[in-house]
Design goal:
mainly alpha
Length: about 300
């Protein structure tokens, strides 16, 4: 017999909760999209992509460790049998996705690497349907198609002059697959812990895994300049720790497939920052791509 004190969640409250979750996911995507603001300047100061991975992951771990030590130490405690979920989010997803993505960028055009990465929402939709029986609706398929076409336009896949190799395609698809797995492993972890705990332990693993990519001489030379420290802090706080916190919080209340599709807003924000901050041209194809992604996101509301 149900507890008489238990009340159904009012529709208005449910709508507000969904709206807050959607806002968290979109905010996360926007913050991820702003990563070019910091990465370009860090690379100009001598940091390689792999050193930036180290700065992001180890810096994220340090920032979150200090933050939660001061505000909520409960996130530090988990059960040993659940470590496998955070190995999944931290190593299998965050770390391996980054390795595959940067390796793909080395041997293929950036546009090819980017669009292969954004096969991730399709992978999440398929895996979510298999694992949790999430419905593959016409609305979800339409949103998926629109965001995929939009990402292709925004990243310049149709502009020509592309470099494609078999190894690059495999690495790009690997990046998309591992990127997608954050939404999968994250959902399993969220069944046992809050979003803050999941985020912290993700960085505990990916931060530790990044140690193997440290290049001491390169880091020492780059961080001799004070501005490098400022850029690194911005990268860690605004485009690493905070977006993972927001995305994981949203993922706790939104279907994995929907969350992954909505996160496709990231290349749109990146493109707009390129136009506004770096003076990159806005082509008709790029504009059309932005409209497609926005339409796909709106369909899911």
């Amino acid at each position: 017999m149900p507890d008489e004190t238990t009340q159904a969640t009012p529709p208005e409250t449910a709508k507000k909760s969904n709206a807050a979750a959607y806002a968290c996911i979109l905010l996360a995507a926007a913050l991820w999209g702003a990563i070019g603001l910091w990465n370009r300047n860090l690379m100009a100061r001598g940091l390689s992509p792999y050193s930036i991975v180290v700065v992001r992951n180890l810096g994220g771990l340090l920032f979150l460790s200090i933050f939660f030590a001061l505000t909520d130490r409960s996130v530090l405690h988990i059960k040993k049998e659940h470590l496998k979920y955070f190995f999944g989010t931290g190593i299998v997803s965050v770390l391996l996705f980054t390795i595959c993505y940067f390796s793909c960028q080395k041997i293929c055009s950036l546009a090819v690497a980017s669009i292969l990465l954004y096969t991730a929402p399709a992978i999440v939709v398929i895996l979510s349907a298999i694992l949790w029986k999430e419905p593959v609706t016409k609305k979800k398929l339409a949103a998926l198609a629109l965001t995929l076409v939009g990402c292709a336009c925004v990243t310049g896949i149709f502009s020509g002059g592309l470099t494609v190799t078999a190894a690059g395609i495999l690495l790009g698809l690997g990046a998309g697959f591992f990127y997608a797995l954050y939404s999968i492993f994250g959902r399993y972890a969220l069944a046992h812990y809050g979003s803050m705990t999941v985020t912290y332990w993700t960085f505990m693993f990916c931060g530790a895994g990044s140690v193997f990519f440290i290049r001491p001489a390169e880091l020492k030379a780059a961080f001799a300049a004070p501005t490098t420290w400022l850029l690194a802090v911005c990268l860690v706080v605004f485009s690493t720790a905070l977006p993972y916190i927001f995305y994981t919080k949203g993922l706790a209340q939104v279907e994995s497939g929907k969350a992954s599709i909505m996160a496709s807003l990231e290349p749109v924000v990146a493109s707009m920052i390129g136009v506004v901050v770096f003076g990159e041209p806005m082509s008709a194809l790029t504009f059309a791509g932005i409209m497609c992604v926005l339409a796909g996101v709106c369909i899911l509301r």
